[in-house]
Write a structure and sequence with these properties.
Elements lengths: L2 H21 L12 H22 L4 H10 L18 H9 L7 H5 L22 E2 L2 H10 L9 E10 L5 E7 L8 E8 L9 E8 L9 E10 L17
């Protein structure tokens, strides 16, 4: 790989990072929102380094092309040339510019082991008024299993997530949340009863009530009153409540 191509790869990679983190929300399919500034800074630095290298080398110059040809001649040492496999680095660089990968979804959530046994009951702050009450899946699951005041009983709630098929023909409303990036994602799942399963990975809002009875350690459950298809959120790895009145 010639020097001018190496500089081009540097600029393309930086531009791809800026496109993914500054101009679009593509970066949120890989990392959490808090890391966006670091990606923007990294992309800007790569572009700057590439432009500086291009200006310093007179990019491209006939003299450098002749030097590259001499370095590839038989018996030449070939100093400064990268191996041919380095051309493969163009694929991830270009993918940041032209390809939007899907977020992790039902396949990942379905294969995650059940959570550990529910912790002891504890007190929670009172729920706000309004019906249906928008909630995150995480809060619903925690209150269902640990709230000693049973504040969810009798309350109609609205949850947002994607559909994950269950092995017995039922389904879960799921979210994947991350601590840093998609590689450390963990699933939050709510079992849904009373409504047929939409296709896997479909984003939906589910309106319903906590299913009566004891909450199993591995899942909380909801009796659905209404299921509506919803657009995928810009940040699919943040467990956010649906907008009020959605």
């Amino acid at each position: 790989m010639r020097r001018n191509v190496q500089v081009l790869l540097l600029v393309l990679t930086g531009a791809g990072l800026l496109h993914a983190a500054l101009l679009t929300d593509v970066c949120l399919r890989f990392v959490k929102e808090g890391l966006r500034p670091a990606l923007v800074a990294s992309g800007a630095l790569l572009v700057l380094l590439g432009l500086v290298a291009a200006a310093r080398d007179g990019f491209p110059t006939a003299r450098r092309d002749r030097a590259d040809r001499r370095s590839s001649a038989p018996g030449a040492h070939g100093h400064g040339r990268a191996p041919g496999v380095a051309w493969l680095l163009f694929f991830p660089a270009l993918s940041l510019l032209f390809f939007t990968p899907p977020a992790l979804g039902a396949y990942t959530a379905a294969r995650e082991a059940p959570p550990p046994a529910t912790e002891a009951a504890r007190a929670f702050p009172p729920l706000p008024g309004g019906s249906p009450l928008p909630m995150t899946l995480s809060e619903f699951r925690l209150r269902a299993g640990q709230d000693r005041a049973r504040s969810l009983e009798g309350r109609t709630v609205r949850l947002l997530g994607f559909v994950t098929p269950a092995g017995d023909g039922g389904w879960y409303l799921s979210r994947l949340v991350v601590s840093c990036c998609a590689a450390d994602s963990r699933a939050v799942k709510i079992r849904v009863y009373g409504a047929p399963a939409p296709p896997a990975d479909t984003w939906v809002t589910v309106t319903g009530r906590l299913r009566p009875g004891p909450v199993p350690a591995a899942e909380a459950a909801l009796d659905a009153e209404r299921v509506r298809v919803a657009p995928e959120p810009a940040d699919p790895y943040r467990d956010a409540a649906p907008p009020a009145g959605d």
